[in-house]
Amino acid sequence: MFISDGKLVSLEVHENTSKYPQMDSLTHIIESYPELKESLNRYKNQTNMKRYTAKELKEYRHDKR
After folding, report:
1. Cβ contacts of residue 21 below 8 Å, gap of 6+?
2. CA-to-CA distance for 32 and 23, rounded, in angstroms?
3. pLDDT of the residue at 15
4. What angle do CA 38, 39, 40 make, to 5 degrees?
5. Under 8 Å CB-to-CB from 2, ≥6 apart: which residues?
6. Which residues, 6 or more positions from 36, have their beta carbon under 8 angstroms from its beta carbon?
7. Whole-prediction pTM value?
8. Quick one: pLDDT at residue 32?
9. DSSP H helical ranges for the chain
10. Are 1 and 10 in contact (CB under 8 A)?
C-alpha cells in the first residue's frame, strides 16, 4: 500500500511472473520509483498508524458495498 496524490493505493500480486526479468526484485522496483519509496517510508515510520492485513482490507471493502 502507498499514497499517491493523497489517495491510498493497495497493490495485490496475483502472478509471480514479470514482463521485465531484470526487475523481479521488489526492492529494485521500489528504488526505481521515488514517490513510492517515500510513501512507503512515511507509512513505515508512523508507528501509531493502525495496520491491516489483506484479509481485513478485503472484508472492509466488501462491507462498504
Report:
1. none
2. 10
3. 63
4. 95
5. 8, 9, 11, 36, 39, 40, 43
6. 2, 4, 30
7. 0.39
8. 85
9. 26-31, 34-45, 54-64
10. yes
Q: How far apart are CA 25 and CA 31, in angstroms?
A: 10
Give yes or no for a contact between 3 and 49, defined as CB atoms under 8 angstroms apart.
no
Q: Domain coordinates of the chain in residue numbers? A: 2-11+22-64
> Has residue 1 got a pLDDT over 60?
yes
Cα 57 to Cα 44: distance, rounded to the nearest angstrom: 18
CB 49 within 8 A of CB 43: yes
pLDDT in tens, 22-55: 556 777 888 888 888 888 888 788 878 777 788 8
The label of the residue with cell 521500489 reads 30
| 9/12 Cα distance (integer angstroms) | 10
